UniProtKB/TrEMBL annotation:
This is dolichyl-phosphate beta-glucosyltransferase. It comes from Capronia epimyces CBS 606.96. Its main location: endoplasmic reticulum. One of its GO terms (molecular function) is dolichyl-phosphate beta-glucosyltransferase activity. Residues 244-328 form the Glycosyltransferase 2-like domain.
């Protein structure tokens, strides 16, 4: 009667010499051990975002008298979805959670992550409010009243109870399946209005005071002056902003750019939500290009993402002047993206531009499932959009180098590469899931 496992025991010669037939078994066990170690490391140390603290779910703003308000609760569509889900679960009802986001209250929300940005924030905000107020605010509403006196075959007009003329323009929208349809909101006027959510990411300088001072000098004067920014010059004629339009949310400790952006987007009230870097390096007047591009590719649910891109600037003076090391690391990262991200995300030429716009119906498919708080969060957003089948379009935008960057080229490049590997591994193995 044979001994169980005798064929394996026979591989060990009695004289104590090494048998080369053991190599396949050794390799198998080494590979198994490596997989187990990696799984343990990823499971134990993989980043998961922390829950917001009570003080981080409140905001302050500047009122019409120039005073800073007491902290007020932030509206949160994400919490509203959780409440609906809990109620449906208790009542044993089925609910398609991601389609239940509460309606928008205004047209545009700008989320600005800010960490020690007292020196650069003012210029960026100046250019932002000029665009937002002119395009989507009271200044735009005034221009609509004037335009209402003219005749136009593509415009539908209505007059409300107060006698104010409202104009809605039909938008040619290309659906995801390639079928074009004309959508007109003749039954209800289009949303107007805007807000800025500045998410102070645990700053140790006067970032919050800078934001409050900016609001004050654009609310109190009858004719505010226009301050200079990265793309514009100082002028005697600026815009007056509505009180409360710039809200400041303070995180108790630094979470990283991704964590700050995600936190702000959870509290956005806009039909469209855009995030932009506090340095103002991206030309903010290109926002309209993102809005139009997003509207053109939105699917039947109204979901769409427009990604600002600097890919057209490769080879330009702004990029060539960078150090050889920084350009080498940039190209290396793009190469990693092609091999480590899903096909649609891999086709995006510039995933890291800090200027991305999301339609409101797209938010529940992306924001609640975010895990990465660091620089690599942009890639996770695009991957989540791809997983959900949300159309994404890349739009060329203006960009220039602005001094004061907090990016450490070597450290952050290595961190982004590691983050990309963790991101792909976690989503690919099910450690992260929707």
């Amino acid at each position: 009667m044979g001994v169980m496992g005798r064929h394996f025991v026979d591989l060990y010669p009695q004289d104590g010499s090494f048998n080369w037939r053991l190599i396949p078994f050794i390799l198998i066990w080494v590979a198994f051990a490596i997989v187990v170690v990696i799984w343990l490391l990823v499971t134990l140390f993989v980043p998961f975002p922390r829950k917001p603290r009570p003080s981080e779910k409140k905001f302050t703003t500047v009122d019409k008298t120039g005073d800073v308000t007491e902290p007020e609760p932030l509206p949160c569509w994400y919490d509203d979805l959780l409440r609906r889900y809990g109620k449906a679960t208790r009542e044993e009802q089925e609910i398609e959670l991601e389609t239940e986001i509460e309606p928008a209250e205004l047209f545009m929300t700008l989320v600005v992550p800010a960490f020690n940005e007292e020196d650069r924030l003012t210029g960026m905000l100046e250019e932002a409010v000029n665009v937002l107020e002119t395009e989507y605010g009271s200044a735009a509403a005034a221009s609509l009243k004037t335009a209402a006196k003219d005749t136009s075959p593509s415009t539908t007009r209505a007059v409300d109870a107060d006698g104010d003329a409202k104009a809605t323009t039909a938008i040619r929208r290309r659906k995801a399946n390639g079928v074009k349809s004309s959508s007109s909101s003749s039954s209800s006027p289009p949303l107007r209005g805007w807000e800025i959510l500045i998410v102070d990411d645990g700053s140790t300088d006067h970032t919050v005071l800078t934001a409050q001072t900016f609001s004050r000098v654009h609310i109190l004067p009858k004719h505010p002056r226009r301050l200079s920014g990265p793309w514009t010059h100082r002028s005697e004629t600026g815009v007056k902003i509505p009180p409360g339009s710039v809200r400041v949310v303070s995180l108790e400790e630094n979470r990283g750019k991704g964590g700050a952006v995600t936190h702000g987007m959870r509290h956005a009230r806009g039909q469209y939500v855009v995030f932009a870097d506090a340095d103002g390096a991206t030309k903010f007047s290109d926002l309209d290009k993102l809005v139009r591009a997003c509207q053109e590719i939105e699917d039947e649910q109204g979901r769409g993402v427009a990604v600002g891109s600097r890919a057209h600037l490769v080879g330009s003076e702004a990029v060539v002047k960078r150090s050889k090391l920084r350009n080498f690391l940039m190209h290396s990262f793009h190469l990693l993206l092609k091999f480590m991200t899903p096909p649609q995300t891999a086709r995006i030429k510039d995933t890291q531009c800090g200027f991305k716009l999301f339609s409101r119906p797209a938010l529940p498919y992306i924001v609640p499932h975010m895990h990465m708080d660091g620089w690599i969060f942009d890639v996770e957003m695009l991957m989540l959009a791809e997983f959900a089948g949300i159309p994404v379009v890349e739009v060329a935008v203006g960009w220039k180098e602005v001094t004061g960057s907090k990016l450490n080229v070597i450290r952050d490049s290595v961190g982004m590469a590691v983050g990309l590997a963790i991101l792909r591994l976690c989503w690919g193995t099910g450690i992260y899931n929707r």
